[in-house]
Predict the structure.
Amino acid sequence: MVLLFFFALLHNCDLLYYICCVSFPLFALLHAAVTTLRAAVLIQRWYRQYVARTETRRRYTWHIFQSIEYSGEQAQIKLYNFLGYLMDNFTPSSNERNLISHIFRENEVCRDAEWERYFCYKNIEVPEIYSGPHLTFPLTVEQTVGLVEAFRNKKQLHSRYVLQLLLETWKQLRMLPNINRISTCQSKEITICGDLHGQLEDLLLIFYKNGMPCLEKPYVFNGDFVDRGKDSIEILIILFSFLLVYPSDVYLNRGNHEDHIVNLRYGFTKEVLTKYKMHGKRILKLLQKIFSWLPLATVIDQKVLVLHGGISDVTDLSILARLDRHNYVSALRPPKKRHKSSAGMSIDSEMDEDILAANKLCQRRISLAYPKAFGERESFQNRSLQDFSDRIKGNAVDELESRMRKQSIYNSGTISSEKNITASVSSDSINSDNPNDEWKQVLDLLWSDPMPQDGCTPNEVRGGGCYWGPDITEDFLNKHNLQLIIRSHECKQDGYEFCHNRKVLTLFSASNYYDVGSNRGAYVKLGPDLVPYLIQYQASSMTRELTVRQSVGRTERSALKVLREQLFAHKSDLVCAFKKFDSENTGLVSVTDWATAVESVMFLGLPWRMLRCQLVTSKIIDGMIDYNEWFSELNIKGSNTDHIDQSLLETLYRHRSTLETIFRIVDTDNSGFITIEDFRQTWKLLSVYLKMEITDEAISDLAVTIDSNQDGSIDIDEFMEAFRLTDKKSRLERGRSMFMGTASDLTKLEGDPNI
Amino acid sequence: MVSDVHKKIKAAFEAFDYETNNTVDVREIGTIIYSLGCFPSQTDLHDFIAEVEEDHTGYIHLDKFLPAMAKILLEHKYPPIPEDILLQAFEVLDKEKKGYLEPEELANYMTQEGELFTQEEMDEMLTALADHEKDLIYYKDILSQLTIDPEL
């Protein structure tokens, strides 16, 4: 009876208590009830544990993708800085410099008339058999809606119309201010969308759920329209068309991916060249210009600021409002300088370039403030830039370390990098304002991320912009009399996330970004009350049918696969690290040591112990891992690459994105082919960058493997594929979509009451 | 052995320490404990929290968490529920011995007996466990699919 009484108390059930106090004959009934109770408790306990474990897996899966994504961005910026360094420090006539100088060459043809001629679409004939949409200008609403429909049906717009559209868009964008100011008057609700990243399905889904832009339905698109997804150009065409048709109701903010340097790595350049074989190069060049003319931010009702990345402690809307935004073709470059001295002389000339280079050298030296602090991977570019840094702050190392400690594991990701972008004094200013201050304003706006702690620190994970804290938000909002910042730039599981006391809203509109089921997308509606109303969605109908468990499982498998590839690519460094814990050369390390060693090489800040059972499938004996056996598990082999040195293969694999980016830079006419000679030069470049010895013989072996028809030129794509450097299923580095949701799935959804 | 346990606990704790100041939100404690392979009941959790929470600040510091959690792990205090016991539990609820449970049946038990589920938890459970076509919970199949190896 005591036991029953105890259960009754525990259960807090009146009936039980009553029975308890009442009577003995009911004992049998009671017994059954108690057993039921116990059964229920067991099941509840078991299930709650299961849910918590699933949640933990989801979080670290997310973290894997994010770390790798951000370290990719960081690698890109490092590469870019390295190339800049080459530009500054190699003699003008050197081969290496010539190979890459064109990406630094000023993109300006001075007069607008020349640009209009360059847009020349009139000579392009549209063939009879073309079945895509035809455009006539000025564009009408019907044509724009027709474009959306055509893209839904997988049509491609002819390059003639693309060029014409770009010309009109450029003319329109030039008239816009840096900061658009709009209002919700007349009870209009404004719809704001975040990153789309070439995922047409998501844009179509938003239009389906919310309606297309029109007079009663204004939209703000908050940057990152391109890269990664496979339909970036189609998204641009749709957005630009709506901009032309509803100029007072469609607003576009620039994102950090509206930048040709970034596009080289993340897939947009390749997409355009593939879809538009003849005129792709021209389209890309024009887009460079158009991107630089995209406005930087939008303010709604003077109270809500919408911009892509974020702010820093020095962000000032008045500076942003008056700078010449088109000077920043790429936010990763210092601002262009116009030399007006030699009349009619275009900046393209070699002589001016040298002057420029000399100035840049001066700039670069001054701007280097923080040397790389952590020694594990001493790569050339860091060490040499460090050599040049004569303004190193005394406690830079300590400062970096303390900043690292402040950033949480889930935020920081990588540790190493040098900070190259600081507001610094330039030796020649054009405007009265310091151009480097302006540059920092633009960079911060496009690249920054919020953090939970107070303060403002450089965003070393991405390599550009800042991490800013709630105190900065508070000061900024007060200073400009605003109440909310809406930004994008970071993928969020639910498509959106509030932070800084609900004063900052992150909005991300590309669902399934990392993989099918990884995240939802969201858009926000703001009425005159300026209270954000959020709508979430997920593009593929298949994801809705997956249970939580299944979609976490899928995404997790993907993440782990990507992670395994990364680990494989760092095999040599890992072996070195393991050996430090294995002085007697037994080939075994403890689980703890394994985790420590892996983190010391990978710098991804991941919970390795938790991941261990997924990453190491070979048996663990007495808590020790056989690391050689582990590597053979991870091994990735190319098809006919046996004659190629293993360590070279590993290098290739690890730096494949960088390698491809360099190839594309070297491929000046964007043909997809480079000559054998340039191929050799590329390797020289890469070997300098990585401080690795790559013999001429090794390079010839590589070339031979690819140039099978011996015609002296190498197909970049073929090369990358031959060495299994492109995994068709891995979308992370290559910008190819892997999920199955297609436009035709969307038509199936029309009868779906769940939307 | 003990230091290994400490490292495990620290790793799990750090995953939720968003401000990198060795504290976690008290609401995450359950998840952390579960992720270490333990199966406490709600009451167990409440008791644990009461023991380690910093004076109702809503935060728990690693200094208090570590020893308390180590004790739990070393004593195997909240062991996993063996699959056969779980099966028996489901069979107890399946009074008609059908081999499956109907959603309403399960929902009644979960939301009215024991450590009650919220409606949200219940909806999620049904989505996760119910067979899509027949809308029934075939508990035998589920158990083998879902029992996760608690070894970290």
Notes: The beta strands of chain B are 23-25, 59-61. Helices of chain B lie at 2-14, 29-35, 42-52, 62-74, 83-93, 103-112, 119-129, 139-146. Chain B is about 55% helix and 5% strand.
